[in-house]
């Protein structure tokens, strides 16, 4: 008697970030959810057993998403009809209460096993989903870790699993609890980054039966999936320019993968039909927002760049200087990750501005000594400076040198003078970073409060930047060595 082998086609996206519209690249339409939907529908018609999953961060990135606070995104993703979605860190950007409201509008299941109410440990979302397709019983589990949801620290009643080790134990609990059900295939939907996915896979007991990890957060483009501890790990970059596709032979007798192929399928007009119904919905949203946000704010001398968040950039210098000039601080630590475009201008419209700076948060003034500023930059620059690390652009006149060989700051100066041991300096931090300052810069709120009362200097960083840009004429900031890292 032959083994029971079944074919499964698994499509997956992650970090879509409101990337709804197609772009014309080299005279070819690329990306956009209308063509993405067309491809998914095409595969659903061509193949017998198809599932489509999204591994977090549907929200943030487009003016459409911002204007409707994720409601438009849910309506659009409803049209894609995913089988299951897990949460990313940006799903909580509009607040946990708003997310729970949005969940009621979703026509697809949202899973997460480790966001919970602290008082009674009640989970906010269903932790897993068991769904059968073509006789294949699939267990999906959704995972986040605290490192990528620092936003929830503003929600004092909300807790999360602390680290990957705890996440692995949570996976084990769920797999063990449902081992009596004949699960043929287990998929982890994570949003913790590709390297963390590999770390998580190495901690999972093979007896738990996890077959695949579909990840997000790190925006990783792969040639082929990684395999760690017998678990296949994949991610599909970012946006809607591509989709991950597994074609898998599932061994139902042994509840495992018999064979698979994987590819990152480009979403373009050469082989992706357009979903006209979805395209019409997107264009309606686009027309409404385009009319409102087409106003021109300013013109830079040239397009300004922000190629990597872990280095000094032209856009970063422009923003840090704008805040210092308008709010009377000594030093502004402007968060690199709050700048969401790699290039801006030379014509700057309100739409471009809102998409580049979506996090309109407060700015706090804290007072720090020279030793504390040194400790802060030892913390910031002592990390592995990856694309998702917390990094800061610094304002005009401030300079820091850091030696990777010595693992320490070797120079701190302001207006060409070394920082004074006897002076306390006013430093600006955006709200998200203020709320996580102990983790991000190694200084606690209590330490800063001991120097001087903490003060909110503006309730809207967006207002500060927009007003500053309105007054600029052909701004032309340069990278000038404000942050120097010596290797």
CATH class assignment of the largest domain: Alpha Beta
CATH architecture of the largest domain: 4-Layer Sandwich
If strands are numbered along the chain, what order do they take across the biggest sheet? 6-5-4-1-16-17
The radius of gyration over CA amounts to 24 Å
Residue-averaged pLDDT? 89
The rounded distance between the terminal residues' Cα atoms is 63 Å
Write up what this structure looks like:
This protein has 487 residues and is α/β, with parallel strands linked by helices. It folds into two domains: 5-288, Purple Acid Phosphatase, chain A, domain 2, CATH 3.60.21; 296-486, Alpha-Beta Complex (5'-nucleotidase,  domain 2), CATH 3.90.780. Helix content is 29%, strand content 29%. It is built from 14 helices and 30 strands. The strands form eight sheets. A six-stranded mixed β-sheet has the order 6-5-4-1-16-17, covered by helices on one side. Strands 9-10-12-13-15-14 form a six-stranded mixed β-sheet, covered by helices on one side. Strand 26 and strand 27 form a beta hairpin. The longest helix is centred in the middle third of the chain and has 18 residues, at 276-293. It is globular. The N and C termini lie far apart (63 Å). The mean pLDDT is 89.
